[in-house]
UniProtKB/TrEMBL annotation:
Signal peptide: 1-18
Name recorded for this polypeptide: ABC transporter
Taxon lineage: Eukaryota, Fungi, Dikarya, Ascomycota, Pezizomycotina
A Pfam family reported for this protein in Swiss-Prot or TrEMBL: SBP_bac_6
UniProtKB keywords: Signal
Length: 366
């Protein structure tokens, strides 16, 4: 009888934890006033560990962040796992579902930095996120941060035009350029039905230039691949002849022989990759240290791309992100939130180009 009562109480507590938290009226954030070194000491006292899940499609994509963080903060270990955001979020949901009273340790991720922007308001409404404002929070563009500090952007992702200058003397400058005869059999593109951000790119392009543009693109016989890192790999591979893509991002300061450009007529995709700390994270101080580091001057000024901060200048030759006429980094969240429309678009492209073929980009050795 006692066991049944405890089980019922535990189940009730789990149900309550998933309720809308609006009327709790306890959403005030913790406002950080400590220095990085002071947070570092608190994180060391906590165990010196932070477990982060980061969206991406190559396992080594965040090796630079791990190295920079661990070098800057001796004694800290950043356990960072890269996987596609659409899989990370489901596994996080599973941990949250199991982390009810009586299931200690079910939630072992401290922080999530993902492309699935629509997950964060939901997690916040469920009471899963820590309301916390790191140092420099107020310098983030207001559109990239939650007013209560439940989440904030940490980096700007952008699908630019990328080409190998050893294979193309003049790179594409507009979406129409990809239809030129010189790009026949030389384009490498990510399946739009396998990545929502690439899907959004095709949606933007075709809404502006029509279905005829897509028909002409198909006539170019592009190579379809999985993952947004794969096109970049193939552009520099000696075993391929592909020369250009518009479904990947390498920042605005690429290394030769790669070059980048952004269109002046069509709309291209940008968004602020979103970060949050879970309220019941095992290492909250470690997560706070990571977020403060990623928003610091020393990190934001070295990303080679636009910053989520208003006061950090973009690379030379580029306007501030909010002044680029052909992109709107805020709109991506609206797109991601309309899951019915997203799924309809996925099925449309699956019908036209087939299901995504090949191994996951995380294990395909490309």
């Amino acid at each position: 009888m006692i066991g049944s009562t405890l089980l019922a109480a535990s189940s009730l507590a789990a149900m309550v934890a998933a309720y809308d938290t609006t009327f709790g009226f306890n959403g005030a954030p913790i406002i950080e006033t400590r220095t990085l070194d002071e947070i570092h000491q608190a994180a060391l006292a906590e165990g010196g560990i932070v477990t982060a899940w980061h969206g991406g499609d190559e396992t080594n994509q965040q090796d630079g962040l791990k190295a920079a963080f661990e070098t800057r903060f001796p004694g800290m270990t950043l356990n960072i796992t890269v996987d596609v955001s659409k899989f990370h979020d489901g596994n996080i949901d599973r941990q949250l579902a199991l982390s009810a009273p009586g299931r200690p340790g079910a939630l072992y991720v401290d922080t999530a930095i993902l492309q699935t922007l629509h997950d964060y308001p939901r997690w916040d409404l469920e009471g899963a996120l820590l309301h916390y404002r790191p140092v420099n929070f107020d310098k983030i563009h207001p559109a990239f941060r939650d007013v209560r500090g439940a989440w904030h952007g940490v980096s700007i992702f952008a699908w630019t035009f990328i080409w190998n200058s050893d294979r193309e003397g003049d790179g594409p400058q507009e979406f129409a350029d990809f239809l030129e005869p010189r790009f026949k059999d030389r384009l490498v593109l990510t399946y739009p039905n396998d990545d929502d951000a690439v899907l959004y790119a095709f949606d933007l392009i075709m809404q502006q230039f029509g279905y005829e543009w897509f028909e002409k693109l198909l006539a170019q016989n592009p190579r379809w691949v999985r993952g947004t890192g794969t096109p970049v790999t193939l552009l520099t591979s000696p075993n391929t002849t592909v020369s250009a893509t518009f479904t990947a991002g390498i920042g605005l300061l690429p290394m030769a022989p790669l070059n980048v450009s952004i269109p002046s007529q069509g709309s291209f995709v940008t968004w602020a990759q979103r970060a949050a700390t879970f309220k019941d994270a095992p290492h909250p101080e470690g997560a706070k240290l990571l977020h403060n580091f990623m928003l610091s001057d020393e990190y934001q000024s070295t990303t080679g791309s636009w910053s989520v901060r208003k006061d950090v200048a973009p690379p030379a030759g580029y306007p501030a992100i909010m002044d680029v006429n052909t992109t709107n980094p805020v709109e991506f969240e609206r797109f991601m939130g309309d899951r019915v429309r997203v799924e309809r678009l996925k099925l449309f492209f699956e019908d036209k180009i087939g299901t995504a073929q090949g191994l996951s980009p995380l294990i395909d050795d490309l």
